[in-house]
Every structure is written in C-alpha cells, then in structure tokens.
Amino acid sequence: MDITYLTPDENGDIAWPDFDRNRRSVVTLGAFDGMHRGHQAVIDRVVALAKKHDAMSIVILFDPRPAFVHGWAAAHDGEEPSDDVTDVNALSGVDDRLAYMRRAGVEHALVVRYSLAFAAKSYLFFLGQCTGRLGMRTLVLGADAALGAGRKGDVKTIAALAASAGVFELDVVDDLGPGEVRIPRDWKPQMPDAWGEPADPLAVASKAERRAWSKRHQARSVRAWSSSNVRYLLGHGRIKDANEILGRAHGVIGTVVHGEERGRTIGFPTANLSADVIGYLPVDGVYAGWLIDLGSVADVDTDAGAGTDATVEADDTTAAKSGARWPAAISIGTKPTFSEKTGLHERVVEAYCITDDWLELYGHRVRVEFAGFLRPQVRFDGVDALKAELARNVEETKRLTA
C-alpha cells in the first residue's frame, strides 16, 4: 500500500498526487479513530468495489482528529494544536489505522494533516477535487458521515448531488452493530471500585430506570459501534465490551524506559512505558492483557514521512517485529503532576510479563493490549499483602489470556 502524507497550505488547498487518469477510483474519507468494526465495514466496502470495477481504492485519512483540532481551537482562541500537543483522546495512532488498511488491501492511503483552513472548504469544493484530481467515481460513506465546512455535506445532501450531477456514485454502508446506546453528555473516566470486569449498569434496568438514568446523567444517544462509545467503555474499565466493538484487543504503543524498579525488588519486574504513549489509556486500574515486542526503537521508524508530502510503503507496526508476545498483568496509575502538553494528570503504564525468561526490553517499542479489567488501584497493608494480590492478578491474567 502506498501512503502519501499531505499538508494543506495556508488557504487549505492540497497538492493532490497525480494518479492514472485512465483509472477510476473508489474513495472514502475520515479519521477512522480506533478502526472499529463500523470503520472496517467501510474500508472493506471500498476495497470490494474497487476490485469489482477494476478501480483504485483510495482512503483519505485525517490526522489529527477533526474533533481534536476544533476542540483545541475553541479552547485556545482559534489556535491550532502544534505537533508536540498530544491528543490523549485518540483511540489509536495513525500507524494502527494504516495497518488495517494495508491488511484489507487498500491501494492508496492519503494522510491529510487536518487544519482549520482545510476544514473551511465546502463539501462541493472537496468533492470536486476528489472527482477531478483523484478520478473518484464512487464515494463510500457511513450512514452518519458529514463533510465540508459546517458538516453540511451529509449523506442525504451528497446523494442528491450525485444523482443530479451524474459524475460519481454514492455508496452508503448501513450502520452495523446493535443500534444506539446512551452515554452521559459530560462523562469523565471513573475507576471501578470492585474487583472483576464491570458490567453494563443498564443491562437489567427497566425502561423507567433507563429514562431516569438518562435524565440524571443528561445522556445522549450514540451508535454502539462508535469511537465515542469505545472511549466511554474504556474510561470505565469495560474492556471486553470495548474489544467487542473494535473486533480485537484494544492496545497502546510506547517505549520501555527505566522506572523506579520497585516491582523488581518484590519479584514482579515490570516494563515501564514512557509518557508519550500512542493510543487511548483505559481508566486507572490493573488489567490482564499482553505485551508485544516491536523491536528496538532504533529499528522502528513509526513516523516515517509524517507531516511531509511524501509517499512511503506501509509498515504494519502493530505486528511483533521479533515475534515475542507474552501474557501480562498491566497497571495504569496516575501521578499527582500535570502534563504541560495536555493539562491532564500524567499516567504511568507498567506491564509484568508472565514468563520464566529474563526480558531486556529497555529502549524497545512495545504494544500493550488489554483483555480484561482485574481490579482498581488500592493501597495494601504491607509488602506481603501486595505480593499476594499480585500473584492472584497473575493467575487471573493467565486465565483471561489462555
């Protein structure tokens, strides 16, 4: 898969790559944050239609997330986030999303740096660029998609345009999954206070109880298969429910660094991740999951071409470079200090790999995946009580990752 990184100019214009003018293309676009099963259905549809019509499959991927850019600008007097500002609410990094596209068989991925100037372009201008410069003859969208300034280019509007102009066709992928769910409007991550995977609090509620809960929490409706719902679930320790929507284990990527090494002194040495973790961290707690070694940082270039107008060949950084994968008990905790980049409390991720081998992972890029919630972060009465609980966590991790 060819990847082209594109940066709009100050007017929001893009120097689109030149493709074979004799070939048509099937195009979709979006942030595809988390690449959940709904996103996968859209990508798979693009590839299927492209094969059917002997056309190019093109995915336009926006990075950073549009919601992040607009939210940051609203909170910072119209200023856009700089490259060193971390989007802590992004479910996954660009490389994870590209990796799925590559496996799905996408031919071209165009990673567009999302800017306010680009966002100000009308959907008519954007679609004109896609048809004129990219040879788009079929546009594939999810049923709730909208594009262009003010999100005025919704599916209904674009369908009418496609029918009247006759230049391209619109193919709408129906919303998949179990319909809609309701989540609190201004929710914040909340660590469960009990041991074991949290259950859906509304699973056995009556209609009256659901209405009361929705009113009390000012809940809003979102699609069950949505990035918003996945964030909400991870923010409440509901890992299994989130993984069901993702179609795989949620994971984050980071570099192993030296920590305080307290775990080593009690027989549970951990791999400590650096602060610049890529991917959404679930709420604080102890989890069962896996650690995958992606290789030394010197051998892993996850930012090749990022931020430049360049074309590179995709590298699936989510696949273990060394082939090493271990079950792991994972701890996420919060430091009493704030990050200057995000204004949020700093988070610490530690993974104890369940293996008889001594692991030397310092300086390695690793992927930490989550299989289930084990328990909240609590204080123990002495080292012996802590060691006994860690031993129980290890046994439960073995069971959940078997």
Automatic annotation (TrEMBL):
InterPro entries: FAD_synthase (IPR015864), Riboflavin_kinase (IPR023468), Riboflavin_kinase_bac/euk (IPR015865), Riboflavin_kinase_dom_sf (IPR023465), Rossmann-like_a/b/a_fold (IPR014729). One of its GO terms (molecular function) is ATP binding. GO terms for biological process: FAD biosynthetic process; FMN biosynthetic process; riboflavin biosynthetic process. The keyword Kinase applies. It catalyses: FMN + ATP + H(+) = FAD + diphosphate; riboflavin + ATP = FMN + ADP + H(+). CDD domains: FAD_synthetase_N. Residues 245-402 form the Riboflavin kinase domain. Keywords: ATP-binding, FAD, Flavoprotein, FMN, Kinase, Nucleotide-binding, Nucleotidyltransferase, Transferase. Pathway: Cofactor biosynthesis; FAD biosynthesis; FAD from FMN: step 1/1. Belongs to the RibF family. This is Bifunctional riboflavin kinase/FMN adenylyltransferase. It comes from Bifidobacterium jacchi. The lineage of its organism: Bacteria, Bacillati, Actinomycetota, Actinomycetes, Bifidobacteriales.
